[in-house]
Amino acid sequence: MTEPQSPRIATAESARRAARMMNLGNIVAMVLPFPLLIFWFGASMFVYAMNRHHPNPKVGHYTQQAAYRLYAVTGALIVMFTAAPRDNVWVWVLGWVAAAAALVPLSVRDLRRIQQDDWQDTPIVDDHHHP
């Protein structure tokens, strides 16, 4: 007979770190938009998939909010840059400034909220029951 295993734990600190990932990526991608925004757009989908259903539901909440903002801003940039004249660099700069102005302050706000939030260790529930 096997002894029952103690439950695995997602520590409070690991949850806080996971909750920060999307917002930190958003900030870095806005500070160095080319080429990082392009790469972060793809990598963010992995981060989202990894953290949206974290054992601590607060991680999922913060990740989802950061993702909503990133995808809204990048969607708006795609529309704007598709219609933008290719020979006017100021349209591109204005788009980047507007995107950064929309994304960075809200990401910083969430990083502060994450830091101040009360994080607890969370047991990891195994949904796959083996006989």
What does this structure look like?
With 131 residues, the chain is mainly alpha-helical. 72% of the residues lie in helices and 5% in strands. The protein has 4 helices and 2 strands. The chain has helices at residues 12-31, 33-51, 57-83, 89-116; strands at residues 8-10, 122-124. The chain has a two-stranded antiparallel sheet. The protein is elongated, with a radius of gyration of 19 Å.
Order of helices and strands: EHHHHE
Q: What is the average per-residue confidence, as pLDDT, rounded to a whole number?
A: 92
Strand order of the largest sheet: 1-2
Q: Terminal Cα separation, in Å?
A: 12 Å
Gyration radius (Cα, Å) is 19 Å
Helix content: over 70%
The best one-word shape is elongated
Brief digest:
With 131 residues, this protein is mainly alpha-helical.
What key attributes describe this structure?
131 residues; mainly alpha; two-stranded antiparallel ribbon; 4 helices; 72% helix; 5% strand
Layout: helices, strands, pairs:
Blueprint: E1 8-10, H1 12-31, H2 33-51, H3 57-83, H4 89-116, E2 122-124
Antiparallel strand pairs: 1-2
